[in-house]
Amino acid sequence: MRQRMTIVLAALLTSGVAVGGCSRGGTERWATTQNTNVAIDWDRINEAYRAANGPEDLERRVNEIYEGSEVISIAVADLDATTQEVTGFFDRNSSGAVDAGEKIFTMRRRITGEGTGEMQTTGHGAYASYHSPMLSIMSGMMLGSMLSSAFHPGYVPVYTSRPYVTHPTRVSQIRTARPSRPSVSAPSRPSGSGRSFPARGGFRGGARFGIRRGDRPAPIRLTA
Question: Which pTM does this prediction carry?
Fold first, then answer.
């Protein structure tokens, strides 16, 4: 029997299976990796564009919504008299431009008639699966000046020959001004109840009410 158990344990160790949860090798199931993508609340991103009073206000709103450690830069360009395109991107090389692989989303606004328009948001890269429906906008709605100004008589596009782009020096200002981000140094395991529990390994409470075997008094033999 003892020889059989020895063979089984040797096979487990050879295959790299952790025995008793004490092995430190392999990949931690709940570890956060550099390639982890942070979820984006797209409804709030769309609302941020509707409520923004300008590109800098949009930068602030978007980065308050985004919960990752990076800062999302904004580029705004008026493609023609009726169409505006907003691009959210990670300016990883601090170039102040939307370079290859940096684009996160684009929001396009188009005026379709007198007092009416539409907007749509499309994700890129890791977020390429997101495509919003065509969202209606119109004069009289609760809109920030970034969108509502397009309905004013005599409106002239501002960002045609010289688009707006978040300047690299603003990135640190945006990061400082937004709410602090949760630490990722101690990742937690998700649970079905919505609570967070620490990862495996650590103190197990409740076993023997915290009494160790060595704490028990030695038995005393009674003699007649």
Answer: 0.66
